[in-house]
């Protein structure tokens, strides 16, 4: 199985060759800033199965609540948020599902992180594990 994604202007492309390890929403205030929305929607995949296939994304390092680096990858041209690599989770990439080719998929969300920061109108996903923070 190969899943592909790209930024809005198509200058950066990527693919992964495995099923997601999990799917997650993150409601933390950093993710709210990162997306300009109430949360990030993530397809979490093993880094060993994730490859940038076109272009070179820019990066921004933020320090998470853990004190460890959250490296954000984005297109330097159109600004699309592509994926994150969290020092606290060294074996996976958190792919932003809105950049999957063909549009965001209606994934069965397995976990919601930082529910303490969830906005009132963003309701709990039934059946998803609810965590007030990460880790």
Automatic annotation (TrEMBL):
Residues 3-115 form the CENP-V/GFA domain. Pfam families: GFA. It comes from the Eukaryota. GO terms for molecular function: carbon-sulfur lyase activity; metal ion binding. InterPro entries: CENP-V/GFA (IPR006913), Mss4-like_sf (IPR011057). Keywords: Lyase, Metal-binding, Zinc. Belongs to the Gfa family. This is DUF636 domain-containing protein. It comes from Mytilinidion resinicola. The lineage of its organism: Eukaryota, Fungi, Dikarya, Ascomycota, Pezizomycotina.
């Amino acid at each position: 199985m190969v899943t592909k994604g790209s930024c809005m202007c198509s200058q950066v492309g990527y693919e992964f060759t495995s099923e997601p390890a999990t799917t997650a929403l993150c409601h933390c205030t950093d993710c709210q800033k990162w997306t300009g929305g109430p949360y990030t929607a993530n397809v979490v995949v093993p880094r060993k199965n994730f490859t940038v296939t076109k272009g070179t994304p820019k990066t921004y390092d933020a320090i998470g609540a853990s004190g460890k680096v959250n490296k954000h990858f984005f297109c330097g041209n159109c600004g699309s948020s592509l994926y994150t690599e969290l020092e606290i989770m060294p074996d996976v990439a958190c792919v932003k599902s809105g950049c999957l080719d063909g549009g965001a998929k209606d994934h069965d969300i397995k976990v919601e992180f930082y529910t303490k920061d969830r906005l009132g109108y963003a309701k709990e996903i039934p059946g998803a594990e609810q965590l007030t923070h990460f880790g």
